[in-house]
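Memo to structure team: turn this sequence into structure tokens by end of day. - J.P.
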Amino acid sequence: MATANRRRRIPSPPSTASLSRNPTVATDPPPYFLPELIPEVAKRLTSLQDFFALRAACRAYRALLPLSASNLASQAPLLLVPSDDSESHALLHLPLRRIHRFRLLQTDRAGAEDVVTEVHTLGCRVAISNRYYCRLPKRDLTIVHILTDERVCLPSPPRDFDRILLSGDLVVAWKYDNIIYCRVGAPKWRMASISLSNYLQHLILVKDTLYAVVDSGQRVAAIELPDDDNNNNKNGLKFTFLEAGFDTQEHGTRVFSLAECCGELLLVISKINEGFHVLQWQSEEGKWVRITNLGGCTLFFAGSIFSGYLGPNHPGIRGDCIYDTGSRFRLVFSLIDKSLDGDATCSLREEPYKWPPLWVFPSMC
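Reply from structure team:
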């Protein structure tokens, strides 16, 4: 039959459904989370590996997650320790027991008989100082961001120094008898010598104010740096002592360290086999007051050097505690129950390090 032999005709699809012959353009896969939820997800990540994996998921996530303090607020502090290779270091994530490699700035050793590299931590940055002893003594000083590898080279320091501080673009390096300072991008350092009666023990920057513990009676003073072009200012430092001093008879000859917590100036007193006492400066009353808690916050020290603090309820970190590192051990002292716990989890080898492991804070980005 004609009708049986008639071929069934398939209707053409509507023109709106026709496929384009143009090649498709490669695009990122659709995101798994709504974009507005990504910052909230990032705030709950406790490892850098997870944070950067989330950023790498797609372009939209990367644009929503710049390296900022709010996005990295849950990141635990890391311990910077030397690795077997003298030119590299390891960043230890203690709560998760993870190791991240960190390579220092390469040093040009050509023609240098002896080069000593020193590392100072500055929140989420490290200051790398290469001291050369060939011909004339010289130092190279570079500040490196641990997450972005951004590097800022500073002028060669005119004086030797033991410690370095960073607040905004102000860099302060100091030794017991002198202070040198400069702004990032400035062509030279400024210098100020210190008299014998005001030799420095500790120095800290709190809200852009420089505070020091001086040798004369273990007193604490605010220091005003001269803001002029005199590059050899021997008498320009102005010391304003906070008070006559605290009760040295009560605390005895101990180790005194300045610290900061939520913008408040603290004086931390280390007592052998007794843990720590913490005094807070009450500016309105003009006196030091001993405190027995930190409002849930945590202080971090490397030896007697204050490294930073974290706010309350930080994942994997005990609140109202002081974390301190030695050449092989990490100590945790609780201001609440006065317990003192120690372990060797910060060590990668049997022999002690030449210097205590240093704290690095990704959340201070």
